[in-house]
């Protein structure tokens, strides 16, 4: 009986096994081994990954972004709410500056269920996910041996990353981790917490370099943990270093080291200097198709964090963005803030069900489909492709006939949702398609054009 009691007690105190001394020692060993490898890295100019296991990214199409942490308790913007007067922060003065950290002891997600989150995302057509495991506020969602602001100090060593990783693997989504190199909770970090007021560094140049060196050791220490504890990580989403007065933030060295630990990983361009495997235009969509791999991260509801009183944008809104982004060869990373208790707002499941219904007939037109980047030159609707099939994305704003200039005559045109033919005429290399009223739904109505030979575009 005594052994059973001890087993139950350990299970309650350490539900993810992170409290077991054997696990702790193993994790510490893996972290130290990883840090030894950092010393061996040869700094070379960064090149986009050519690892075969990283080539999923340009065809991924659709991802789920989740900003989650202590900020969710108050339903405020992550980290930026610390800055007094910041226009995208909060006017709740009790959370400006150090007051923000009163949230530390209140974050305790007793109903955390990432399995349900990711299941819904997978059905909605999402192929990867990114969770904020540490934002600028410095709070780590795992029991870190570095610093004094993680679940080690505030949640009995509970690991919030592992259940998320396991859920992604269960439902076939690529695993992404967001990690902020800048850390405003780190003692002496160079940041002003008043909007418009510049940080005045009291250090000498030499002392500033020494302090940065210590901060870098702390930062890569945490990175060594998240890159060795959870097996294969598919994507790493950095969000800026930003230490004032330091020119060399060791971007190439750090990214090369990350690759040494996780050869297949895809890395965004935000550690510093715009260096990474892909670019990350935020919120606003570019005016034209960017070069190379890219991803547009956008807010689905309210602000980046938990926004319980804000409307979740419609499925028509999501699909329009997704259609344009995919036609330009990018991915859409759609953000939602989970609740502080570890649940998702009911509206999240309503929207993912709507998207799942659309994906049941038209998924192939977006997920894994290639771009027609110059479609605006000859079409009024976004176009994606698969070999000899082009997909015309007729959006709610597109009314009347759909016209394409300077194209050959297609063999057939089919509405994906119904499988029925769409009437068209072709004269003088001008293709005109007519979608009757019963062919329109208020969402992205996709017409599949099949060509005898694919147009050269």
Termini separation comes to 73 Å
SSE succession? HHHEHEHHEHEHEEHEHEEEEEEEE
Shape: globular
- Sheet of most strands: 7 strands, parallel
- Give the CATH class of the largest domain: Alpha Beta
Q: Which fold name fills CATH's third level, the topology of the largest domain?
A: TIM Barrel
If classified by CATH, what would the architecture of the largest domain be?
Alpha-Beta Barrel
Strand content: 5-15%
The named CATH superfamily of the largest domain: Glycosidases
Helix content: 25-40%
Which structural class matches the secondary elements? alpha/beta
Q: What is the count of helical runs?
A: 10
What does this structure look like?
By secondary structure, the chain is α/β, with parallel strands linked by helices. It folds into two domains: 345 residues, Glycosidases (TIM Barrel, Alpha-Beta Barrel), CATH 3.20.20; 79 residues, Immunoglobulin-like (Sandwich), CATH 2.60.40. The protein contains ten helices and 15 strands. The chain has a seven-stranded parallel β-sheet with strand order 5-4-3-2-1-7-6. The protein has a five-stranded antiparallel β-sheet with strand order 8-9-10-15-12, with helices on one face. Helix 7 links the parallel strand 3 and strand 4. Helix 4 packs parallel to helix 10. The protein starts with a helix and ends in a 7-residue tail after the last strand.
């Amino acid at each position: 009986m005594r052994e059973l009691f001890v087993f139950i007690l350990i299970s309650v105190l350490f539900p993810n096994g992170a409290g077991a001394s054997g696990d702790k020692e193993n994790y510490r060993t893996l972290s130290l081994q990883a840090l030894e490898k950092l010393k061996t890295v040869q700094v070379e100019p960064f090149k986009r990954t050519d690892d075969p296991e990283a080539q999923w990214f340009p065809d991924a199409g659709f991802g789920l972004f989740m900003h989650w942490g202590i900020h969710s308790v108050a339903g405020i913007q992550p980290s930026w709410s610390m800055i007094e007067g910041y226009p995208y922060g909060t006017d709740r003065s009790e959370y400006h500056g150090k007051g923000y950290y009163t949230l530390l002891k209140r974050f305790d997600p007793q109903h955390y269920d990432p399995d349900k989150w990711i299941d819904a995302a997978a059905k909605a057509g999402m192929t990867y996910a990114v969770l904020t495991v540490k934002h600028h506020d410095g709070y780590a969602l795992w029991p870190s041996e570095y610093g004094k602001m993680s679940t080690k100090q505030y949640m009995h060593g509970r690991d919030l990353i592992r259940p998320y990783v396991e859920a992604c693997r269960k439902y076939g989504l690529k695993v992404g981790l967001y990690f902020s190199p800048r850390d405003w909770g780190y003692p002496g970090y160079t940041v002003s917490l008043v909007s418009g007021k510049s940080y005045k560094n009291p250090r000498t140049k030499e002392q500033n370099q020494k302090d940065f060196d210590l901060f870098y050791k702390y930062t890569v220490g945490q990175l060594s943990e998240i890159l060795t504890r959870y097996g294969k990580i598919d994507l790493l989403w950095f969000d800026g270093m930003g230490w004032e007065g330091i020119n060399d933030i060791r971007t190439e060295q750090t990214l090369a080291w990350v690759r040494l630990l996780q050869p297949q990983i895809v890395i965004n361009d935000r550690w510093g200097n715009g260096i990474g495997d892909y670019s990350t235009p935020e919120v606003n969509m570019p005016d034209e198709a960017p070069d190379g791999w890219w991803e547009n991260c956008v807010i689905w509801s309210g602000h980046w964090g938990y926004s319980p009183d804000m409307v979740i944008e419609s499925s028509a809104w999501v699909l329009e963005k997704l259609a344009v982004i995919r036609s330009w060869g990018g991915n859409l990373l759609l953000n939602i803030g989970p609740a502080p208790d570890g649940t998702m707002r009911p509206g999240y499941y309503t929207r993912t069900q709507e998207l799942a219904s659309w994906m049941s007939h038209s998924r192939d037109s977006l997920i894994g489909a290639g771009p027609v980047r110059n479609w605006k030159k000859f079409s009024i609707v976004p176009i994606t492709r698969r070999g000899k099939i082009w997909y015309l994305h007729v959006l709610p704003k597109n009314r009347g006939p759909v016209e394409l200039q300077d194209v050959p005559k297609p063999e057939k045109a089919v509405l994906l949702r119904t499988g029925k033919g769409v009437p068209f005429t072709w004269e003088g290399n001008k293709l005109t398609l007519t979608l009757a009223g019963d062919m329109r739904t208020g969402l992205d109505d996709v017409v599949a054009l099949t060509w005898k030979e694919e147009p050269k575009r």
